[in-house]
Amino acid sequence: MARVWDFVTKTKLYQLNSNGEWIEKGFGDLTFEINQKEDAAYLVLTGPKGEKILHSYVILQDNIYQKQGETIIFWKDQIQQNLALSFCDTSFSRNIWEKICAVRGVDPDEVTQNNTSELLVLSDQKGHPLPPATINTLDKLLDSLTDLSPLVRGAVASKIINDQYVVKLIDIFHQLEEQQSPIGNIRVIYEIFKEIFLLNQTQMIHHLMQDSVYIDVFSILEYNPDIPFQKYRHREFLRSTVKWKQVVPFTDNVLVSRIKSNFRITYLREHALSP
User: Does the structure show a pLDDT above 70 at 43?
Assistant: First the structure.
């Protein structure tokens, strides 16, 4: 049986090469494991289907580890390679960070000047240009979003939000559906949105789940190639089956909006991004 695509534990591993570029080294599920015989703790990255260990790194007490933002952890391994983990889920990132700090006997909230000074040189100042969102540039846009350096993800997410990429891509999606375009063309848009989700930015998730676009986003996610086509009719379920009832009336519109957003995010992780 295929392993469920668990959004929470999905993690990308990057290595800094000799040209100062972050290269993706693996993508899969991350686990924290303790080897009692060795009296050591490891970070283990397995393939998407869990059948193969891609990488395993022992957590060293005298190593330099740094957490940047909500979803990135940097460190150097035993042979002084610069490595980075980019997480899909902020709470899982925090959980792994706390376990690393527990092994090292340090406070996870403590950031010393010495720790940051050595690793700040890893910051990517070049930015990352994106091609426009048009029907003729979908493949180029997908390529530009694939294997991003973890250090430019925040900037890319901001550009996507500020330049209205989501609305433009949704318009293209509807054009292709109405024209009954080959399913392969529509699935390029699905792959683009998958990479957008993997930017690991909280602001992006909430942007995609807002009232004005969430139905369209879930419509695109129906084209997941790992799921029998339209096995999950997300838009039909969210439009017709989900009914909001207030036992006690809420007068706080912000609270109501937050409750709805949290439901959509939960549905996203448990159904739309999992076979």
Answer: yes
